[in-house]
Design goal:
Oligomer: single chain
Helix content: 40-55%
Bound molecules: 5'-O-(N-(L-cysteinyl)-sulfamoyl)adenosine, zinc ion
Shape: elongated
Largest sheet: 5 strands, parallel
Number of strands: 16
Number of helices: 13
Radius of gyration: 22 Å
Distance between the termini: 31 Å
Order of helices and strands: EEEHEHHEHEEHEEHEHEEEHHEHEHHEH
Strand order of the largest sheet: 5-4-3-10-11
Strand content: 15-25%
């Protein structure tokens, strides 16, 4: 699948420190110096049944910061993202509105691309759909069958659904660290089916769904059907990044079951290797007191704000004003403040001379390497602009350095 076009990343005057991020599985900071010279990152992509909201944008901007922080530290980055272009929520929305599901997925994926471009999010090197990955999914399920970790549950239509036995992975539970009660509570809320008769363990998850009337289905050695959700990300990441890649990322709503299951499936298919080195999760953005979500409809859309003429860089500044791990609520007055801040930064950065830039470069890169502390990095830029506007113009051309810094490290074009 085609990604979106890449903004130019200007070269920084000096390299940043090695990056530390918070790993959900160890509940600790880890320094992720890439094993292979290239940092490999997989970030779970959208299910394209509705437009990009600010929660999605916030998560993708968070991982864009990680991408940029690795580059600032001098590492190459290989970035893979999926598109869940066949799954229940997409098919349900298409059925409800009478639209063809493929057309719906293509339209919303295209809108997502333009939103990401406007926000200056670096595109993944591989942007991969679930549908185009069905052969990869099927062969990973076959490996799980060889490992004895798959069983069939008959469907009403005479076919079989294939389930993954979570007990096959001795490390099951290590990503979330949750106890069984908590897993059972959340599983049903997030696409799982703990009550399904015929399952060996309520937590076992669907790998391959046998064909249903009116649902799309593909021929395979597993029978006609379509992939389950978690195996999609296990198979795509394994194919395009290999084993033990640096970061598996997404919003914190994916910790369980999605990232737990994806890791378990990949590790049972290949017990010699870990799935990812670290599991990194962005906080949830809320609106009107509840997690912003397509299913609830409490959304503010990137495309709606852009349509109203809001500068995407002001949207980005608003997202960066919150630490990526915190849960926060979208408030329109914060956007208004970001518009003002953007104006002040731009004014200072276009002055022929400004306050010394060196300490700001160091402060910004250090803050970002320290678990992607964008609010602290923004604070350093704001102080520089204040000093410059107050008359500290000791360094000719300082604004050019600050513009390079804001663009390369934070993705903000001044
Ligand atoms: N296609 C799957 C992942 S394989 C999926 O979760 N799609 S999604 O469209 O529902 O979400 C896309 C990304 O946005 C995920 O990383 C999810 O964790 C994140 N996300 C969804 N809602 C929010 C929110 N309110 N705040 C922050 N991030 C969110
Ligand atoms: Zn995923």
């Amino acid at each position: 699948m085609r990604a979106w076009s890449a903004p130019v990343v200007p070269t920084l005057p000096s390299a940043g420190p090695e990056v530390q991020v918070f790993d959900s599985s160890t509940q600790d900071l880890v320094e992720l110096v890439p094993d292979s010279g290239t940092a490999r990152m997989y970030v779970c992509g959208i299910t394209p049944y509705d437009a990009t909201h600010l929660g999605h944008a916030s998560t993708y901007v968070a991982f864009d910061l990680l991408n940029r922080a690795w580059r600032s530290a001098g590492h190459a980055v290989r970035y893979v993202q999926n598109v869940t272009d066949v799954d229940d929520p997409l098919l349900e929305r298409a059925a409800a509105t009478g639209e063809d599901w493929v057309t719906l997925a293509e339209r919303e994926t295209e809108l997502f691309r333009t939103d990401m471009e406007a926000l200056r999010v670096l595109p993944p090197d591989e942007y991969v759909g679930a549908v185009e990955s069905i052969p990869l999914v099927v062969s990973m399920i076959q490996r799980l069958q060889d490992a004895g970790a798959v069983y069939a549950v008959p469907t009403d239509g005479g076919g079989d659904d294939l389930y993954f036995s979570v007990t096959a992975d001795p490390d099951f539970g290590a990503v979330s660290g949750w106890d069984r009660d908590q897993m059972l509570r959340i599983f049903a809320e997030r696409g799982g089916d703990p009550e399904r008769p015929g399952k060996k363990d309520p937590l076992d998850c669907l790998l391959w769904q046998g064909e249903r009337p009116d649902d799309p289905a593909w021929d395979s050695v597993l029978g006609r059907g379509r992939p389950g959700w978690h195996i999609e990300c296990s198979a795509i990441s394994r194919e395009h990044l290999g084993a033990n890649f640096e970061v598996q990322g997404g919003g914190s709503d994916l910790v369980f079951p999605h990232h737990e299951m994806s890791a378990a499936e990949a590790q049972v298919a290949d017990p010699e290797h870990r799935f990812a080195r670290a599991y990194v999760h962005a906080g949830m953005v809320a609106l009107d007191g509840e997690k912003m979500s397509k299913s609830k409809g409490n959304l503010e859309l990137v495309s709606r704000l852009r349509g109203q003429g809001v500068d995407p860089m002001a949207i980005r500044l608003t997202l960066l004003g919150h630490h990526y791990r915190s849960d926060w609520e979208w408030k329109p007055n914060e956007l208004a403040r970001s518009v003002v801040l953007l104006g002040r930064l731009r004014e200072a950065a276009t002055a022929p001379a400004g306050a010394a830039s060196g300490p700001v470069v160091e402060a910004v890169l250090t803050a970002l390497a320290d678990d992607l502390d964008a609010p602290r990095a923004l604070g350093a830029l704001r102080e520089w602009a204040d000093r410059t506007s107050a008359g500290d113009q000791g360094e000719p051309g300082a604004g050019d350095v600050i513009r390079t810094l804001a663009d390369a490290a934070l993705g903000v074009a001044l």
